[in-house]
Amino acid sequence: MADQYAQSGEAVRPSDVAAMPAIPAIRWDEPPEGPVLVLLDQTRLPAEETELVCTDPPALVQAIRTLAVRGAPLLGIAGAYGVALAAARGFDVDEAADALAGARPTAVNLAYGARRAQAAYRKAVAGGADEQQAAAAVLATARALHKEDAEASARMAVHGLALLDELMPGGRPRVLTHCNTGALVSGGEGTAFAVALAAHREGRLRRLWVDETRPLLQGARLTAYEAARAGMPYTLLTDNAAGSLFAAGEVDAVLIGADRIAADGSVANKVGSYPLAVLARYHHVPFIVVAPVTTVDPDTPDGAAIEVEQRASHEVTEVTVPFVPVTGAEVGGGISVAPLGTQAYNPAFDVTPPELVTAVVTEEGVVSPVTTEGLAELCARSRQV
Length: 385
Ligand code: MRU
Known about the structure:
The protein is of the alpha/beta class. The protein has helices spanning 14-19, 57-65, 72-88, 93-101, 108-126, 131-167, 192-201, 218-229, 242-247, 273-282, 314-317, 372-384, and strands at residues 26-29, 36-40, 51-54, 174-177, 207-211, 234-237, 253-256, 260-262, 267-270, 287-290, 296-297, 318-319, 335-336, 349-352, 359-362, 365-367. Strands 6-5-4-7-10-15-16 form a seven-stranded mixed sheet, with helices on both faces. It is globular, with a radius of gyration of 20 Å. 5-S-methyl-1-O-phosphono-5-thio-D-ribulose binds next to helix 3 and strand 9. The site of 5-S-methyl-1-O-phosphono-5-thio-D-ribulose has 17 residues, from helix 3 and strand 9.
């Protein structure tokens, strides 16, 4: 079966890849008109690489809700820069931090980033800083978080690759991934995708199976885009095809990211992750979660306590071309693929219980088996650094 797919990764010609500009997922800029946060608009990918310029916190909140900027670690970075933008532009910082932290409920990193930046502002003001100095302190915090995330990403790749080696000594795994976890969600090269990329660079990735990730197609639009840019051997599949792929013995490991990991090790990630965990267990395939320590939330005791974002029906009932999700409306303005008025069940995430997770890989190391104690020890270690 593998041979029939051998062409897929080579479908992107080197010239195509070189032609793609490398726009960072997020950057702070200070043009003469005042500071702005510039996002690579992920709703337009892969058709267009367009920048979205946010001049105020409400614009950033909207960008977060429409998934122009998305993915747990990047949401944390965006939250922090959003508070920096509020401070630099004279907005009410506490109000902005609340709006940003609550823009999407599941990824714990978003609130973490916004609240950390807010705390930096309050500390500066309490220490006698004027508005300008306080704004500079918040920006420094956002930049620090951005840098920390890039470093965490590199360390996760090292730990993840070592784990793959341990599980499959000398092997060239075929890795299945879901949603998007690369440089588009991170200050660095990402989480799960960074591990696959590290394996690829060492010539040890046999294939990256990319789930399309309905309904917003983060796999097809974004992971395939990143895999193509990196020249990785990848093949796209519909989410429904994963079962037959496992049954055919074509998957050696599942690597996914996380939006929130509860204290007991329950993992919230893009909807469709849980069925993959069940499949992986049935087929004796390791199911590996890669996430920075900031995604572990000791304040959320278990999976039942994780708030799962529910999104609009039209993301399922309509198809938009070019792909631009519309939020906050009854209809999205796309082409209906279901009878008018159809309501859809559209959770953005699902929760995988810890007993189905082989390992959680973080920048601080690997937790396996996944236990409350193991995760608590990891968080404590991280706080000491
Ligand atoms: O709705 P999204 O696109 O923000 O969801 C993103 C995911 O579910 C990712 O898998 C998760 O954030 C991990 S990214 C390191």
